[in-house]
Amino acid sequence: MKGVIGMDDTVNGALPAGAPAGADRPCEDGTAGSEWRRLSPLTVQAGVLCITLFFMLPALGGAGITAFFGVFWPWGALILLAGLLLSAVISVSDVFRYRLTRYRVTAERMEMRSGVIARSHRSLPRDRIRTVDVATPLWARPFGLCRVTVGSGQGGDAGDELKLEVVSAEEGRRLRRELLRRSPGAPAAAGARPEDTAQDTAGEPGEGEPTVLAEVSPRWYRYGALSWGPMALGYGALAALLGTAAQIIGDFASRLFAPIGRGLYEFATSAALVAVPSVLLGVIAFGSAVALAVHVEAWWGYRLTREPDGTLLVRRGLLNLSSVSIEERRLRGVELCEYLPLRWFGAASVAAVASGLGENEQSKGLVAKRTLSPDMPRAEAARTAREVLPGAVFPELTGHPRTALRRRLVRAAVAAVLLTAAVGAPLWLIPFVPAGVAAGGTAAAAALFAPLCAAYAVGAYRGLGHGLDRRLLYLRGGMAARSTVALKRDAVIGWTVTRSPLQRRAGLSTLGATVAADSGVHRARDIGHSQGLALADEAVPGLLTPFLLRN
Amino acid sequence: MTTREAARPATDLRLRPPRHRVERRAIALWTLRALIGTALTALPTAAAAITLGLFDVVPWLVLILWAVTAAAGAIGLAVTAVMPTWRYRVHRWEVTDEAVYTASGWLWQEWRIAPLSRIQTVDTDRGPLQRAFGLSSLTVTTASAAGPLKVDGLDAELASDLAVRLSEATQAVPGDAT
C-alpha cells in the first residue's frame, strides 16, 4: 500500500485549499472529487500561534524572573532566544508539512501524500474504510478546524489509518459524509450501484434526519467519580502532585522549616484518629473531583445518533470535541459493560463490537473508540444497546456447570493462602515482632482475605452465562469487569475450543466465537464441554455439525 | 443458514478429532526444537556459572546458578521426552468443502474451525529446521483478529498443494471475507 507512485500533475498546481470537486474525472453521482486537496491553510496560522504561545509564554516568564532577580542579563536573553528558535523550527516544519501534504478521494480509494524528508504515498481502498473520526482538539477550536482520522482496521491492524491534521470543520463533515456514504444494505463490491439497491430507500444518502438513540442526562455525570478511566487519572494526578510536593519539601523546606515540619509531624501522630481519616477523605475528595471533571469533559453533550447514511455517530466533549462514526454494516454486536464499583450503583455502559476501531491501540486517550455511551443507569444502557442492535434484549442467560464454580473456589483458596502468606511471612520473619502479634496478624489477614476471595469466586461464577435467541448469541463473563456481549449469529466466522488439563478432567472447555472485529474472539470460559458444543452448533447451524460426535 | 434445530440435543456431544494426522517426521522436528530450546535456556546460566567458577568468586552464587541450570535442563529434557509424541497424538487437520478444522497443543489443547468462505490468506512457512525434515507449516488467516489457524508438521508438497487448493476455494467467494 505504501511507496511512492509516479508523480501526479495535479500536485504541482497550486490548488486553493478546499477547492471544489474536480471536473476532469467526475463520478456518476458527481460528488466524489478526484483532485488533490490540501489541508486547511489555517493549519499554519493556528500551528504557529499555538506553538509560539506554548514556547514563548514560559520563555518570557523565565526571562522576566531572571530580570526580576537581577541575574546576569544574557541568561534571560538566552532563554528568549531558545524559545524563539524552538518556535521557529517547529513552525517551519509545520509549514513544510502543510505544503507537502495532499489528499484526495476518488471513486475507489482515498489517497494521501505526506512527509517532508521521507515522502510517503498511502492509499486506502474505500470499501475498506470502516471509520471516519472527526475530532476537534481544544487548540483547533477557535480556528474552526478539526482532525480527521480515516481507519480501515483490517484484521485488527491499527496501523492502517490516514490522519488529516487539520482541515476545516466543514471539510471534515464533508469527508465523513462522502467516505461513509453507502446504502446500508448495499454490498461494497464494485459494480453495485446505489440505484440497484433501491429497496432500502430509508437509507438513501443525504435524506432523512438522524435518529437520536441516546442523549446525555446531567444525572449520569456523577458516575464519573467511580468510573475506571477517570478514576485512574484523578488518583494518578493526586499521586503526581503529592510526589512533586514531597520532593519540593524534601529539597528546600526540610532545612528551613524543619522545626515546623517536626511540629506538624508530632501533631499528626498525636491526632492520628482525626488526621488519618481527614487525609483519606481529602485524597478521596480530590481524586473524585478530578475524575468527575475528566469524565464531564469527555462526555459533555454526548449524543448517539443513527445517521441516514447507515452509520452510528457518537458525539461528545466539552473542550475537546470528538465524534466517531461506526458503519453499521461493520457492527458485529454490542457489549453491555458493567464494571465493578459502578455495578453496585446500577450503572452500565455500552460498547460496539465492530472492526476497524483500532482497539489494540492503547494510547487513544480516555475513551476507547468502541465506547458508545458513558456510564448510565443499567436500564438506559440496555435500551441504548437495543436501539443500536435491534433485537438485543439481553434475556436471562444459562449458567455454566457447578464444576466451573469449584475451579473458581480452588483458585480463590490459593489466592487467599498466597495473600495471607504475603502478609504473615514478614511478620514472622522480622525478629522483634512478638509471636503473638505475628500469629494475630496472620489470622486477621486470613480472616480478611478468605471471605473476600470466596465472594469474588462466587461472583465470577455467577457472572458466567450464555444464551441464544433468533439472531444473537449472548456471552457473559467477568467479575470486576463484567460484560455481556451480544453477537450477531451470522457474524460468527469460526469457533475455537481450548481445554487445559484441569478443564479436561472437569468436563469443561473454553468456547471462543471468532468474530471479524478488533476483539477477535469472544469467549465463554468454563462452559460445559458438551453444552458449549451444542451452543456453537445451534448458533451457527452446519459449521460444526460434521465434526461432532453424539452418544 | 436460516434453518434452526428444533430442540437442543440432550445427548452428550464431543468433537471428533480431525481426519488427518501430521507427518510422523514432525516428532523428530519437535524433539530437535525442544532440545535446542532446552540448550538455549540452560546455556546462559551454565556459562555464567563456569565463568564465575573460573575466577573463584562468590561460590554460593555459582551453586545457585548450577541449580538453576540443572532445573532448566531437567524441565527441558522432560518436555523433550513427553511433548513430541503427545503433540503428534493431538495435532490433526482436516479440510472439507465448507471448513478448515485443526487440533493442536499438548497440555493445553485447542480445536479451531473456520469456514472456507471466511478465509483471507493462506501461507506456507518453511524454516531451516523444517526444510531439513521436508516439512512445512500451513497458516490460514481469517478476517478475525483472533490469529490464524496453523498446522505444523505437514509434508512440504502436501502443504503447498493445500495452500493452492484453499486459495482457489477462497477466491471463488467474493467480498473481503468479513
UniProtKB/TrEMBL annotation, chain B:
Coiled coil: none annotated. Keywords: Membrane, Transmembrane, Transmembrane helix. The keyword Electron transport does not apply. The chain crosses the membrane at residues 26-54, 60-83. It comes from Nocardiopsis composta. Residues 88-163 form the YdbS-like PH domain. This is YdbS-like PH domain-containing protein. InterPro entries: YdbS-like_PH.
